[in-house]
Specification:
Blueprint: H1 2-6, H2 22-42, H3 49-56, H4 60-88, H5 90-110, H6 114-128, H7 132-142, H8 148-165, H9 168-192, H10 195-199, H11 216-228, H12 230-261, H13 266-293, H14 298-318, H15 325-350, H16 358-387, H17 395-405, H18 409-438, E1 441-442, E2 453-454
Antiparallel strand pairs: 1-2
């Protein structure tokens, strides 16, 4: 995997061999605070699913449509947002993203028809799409290159804490404030936080981001060049494969599965979802430290995450009857590694991307898990409806229906694992050829120079 690790593009001079300034930490903290709010908004249907079904008079498939549309919009926006970040800088995108999310949540609180609520949820995905890529761009601009992998994982760790706020506090708010009061409060809190990107965040230590070109032809060239790098495609498939199982579980289907399928109480189910997020934060820190020291472990670590997820999910689904609590905790622990695993994709793509194309590369990578999540959300909802898992009077039938629906992720996990193995094998092969060529000395014909020249080919 040397090509992934050694073919890194140059980084801005101000990020090399400098101590991290307090201003960098303040800027990063303000940016990840916006990401915290974005994750909260993204996950807000995790415990509000039953309330949404009652409010809008919908079934499981229609409930899936909320999260599916949100994920599809998010995925579709990633490449445009990456180009916009490269063109206008992360500060403006953070402002725009937070503003759009506030409008979306206020609209979600006010409407009472499924169609308008669906539009509001799609708008939320649009605003959410602008945030994380902007945070990654700030990390690359403000911190030394050797610290980017760790800071990327710490960004995911800090943002994931927003998922905790979508479990216990949001469930309490729904019971206390009701639907409209809860989502209006969420919108108001987001509006107050607009002061962070407006007053604190700056694109670079010099105040302005490196601007990309405005010409459409050049934008197409930038996308084509970025996609042509195998590291970008590998990063996409790493993100696709490692990120979606836990996302689907926490966004929508984990709570119904635990309560209606496995027979847990609402408090126990919420506690397990909170454990998933807390454990994910621990994995993010551990992965960040490990990959800072051993970047060659990127692909093996990603495949290990996939393997643990497959084994844990298979064990729960194959268990006769309801799984014991200890096995559900094993599944939660496997899911907890997913978020940290998906961050590896950004690190892989960054290693081969020049600074002015980091937004585009990150946008392409970030399509992965959200596209997989959208597909899985829809498929799970259709299978839950087809089996009648949510509406059957029999606990056994409900559990069997959820187990059938939860088999679908194996399809995408197999597809993604094959792509990761295929592309990484190609990168190793290309790097081997490049190493052989770089070791060959070429002597010019004639007496012009007796000194051999060594040819170095970048991976």
């Amino acid at each position: 995997m040397d090509a992934i690790d050694s073919a890194a593009a140059p980084v801005p001079v101000h990020t090399l061999d400098q101590r991290i300034s307090p201003r960098a930490w303040v800027t990063w903290s303000a940016a990840v605070a916006v990401y915290f709010v974005a994750v909260f908004n993204r996950s807000s249907l995790g415990v509000a699913g039953p309330d949404a079904e009652h409010r809008f008079g919908i079934n499981a498939a229609s409930l899936s449509a909320f999260s599916m549309l949100q994920m599809l919009v998010y995925a579709a926006m990633q490449i445009p947002v990456g180009l916009l970040v490269d063109r206008f800088g992360p500060r403006r995108l953070l402002l725009a993203g937070l503003t759009v999310m506030c409008v979306a949540q206020a609209s979600f609180a006010a409407v009472d028809s499924f169609g308008f609520a669906l539009i509001a949820r799609g708008l939320l995905g649009c605003g959410d799409a602008m945030v994380f890529i902007s945070v990654l761009r700030i990390v690359s601009a403000w911190f030394p290159a050797r610290r980017v992998a760790l800071l990327t994982q710490l960004s995911a760790l800090t943002g994931a804490a927003g998922g905790i706020a979508s479990a216990w506090p949001l469930a309490w708010a729904l019971q206390t404030l009701g639907w409209s009061g809860t989502f209006l409060t969420v919108a108001a809190v987001g509006a107050c936080l607009l002061v962070l990107p407006a007053g604190i965040v700056r694109d670079t230590p010099h105040g302005r981001a490196m601007r990309g070109t405005r010409r459409v032809g050049r934008l197409r060239d930038q996308m084509r060049v970025t996609w042509a790098r195998p590291q970008t495609r590998l990063g996409l498939w790493v993100h696709f494969t490692t990120g979606f199982p836990a996302a689907v579980f926490t966004l929508l289907w984990g709570y119904p599965f635990l309560v209606q399928g496995e027979g847990l109480g609402s408090g126990s189910a919420s506690a397990l979802l909170t454990l998933l997020i807390c454990a994910n934060m621990g994995f993010c820190f551990a992965f960040g430290v490990a990959l800072t020291r051993r970047p060659d472990l990127r692909v093996p670590l990603a495949l290990s995450v996939v393997g643990c997820t497959v084994l844990a999910l298979a064990a729960v689904l194959l268990w006769p009857g309801r799984a014991p609590l200890w096995l559900l905790i094993v599944l939660i622990s496997a899911y907890a590694s997913n978020g940290a695993g998906s961050m590896i994709g950004f690190d892989v793509a960054r290693s081969a991307s020049p600074p002015e194309q980091l937004g585009t590369a990150s946008g392409i990578v970030n399509v992965g898990a959200f596209l997989a999540s959208a597909i899985t959300l829809l498929a799970t909802g259709l299978l839950v409806d087809a089996t009648g898992a949510e509406h059957t009077a029999s606990a056994t039938a409900a559990l069997d229906g959820f187990k059938i629906a939860f088999c679908f992720p194996f399809v995408l996990l197999a597809l993604g694992s094959w792509q990761i193995a295929r592309i990484s094998r190609g990168i190793r092969s290309d790097n081997t050829v490049a190493s052989l060529r770089s070791s060959v000395d070429y002597h010019p014909v004639g007496p012009t120079s007796p000194v051999a020249s060594s040819v170095t080919i970048d991976g």
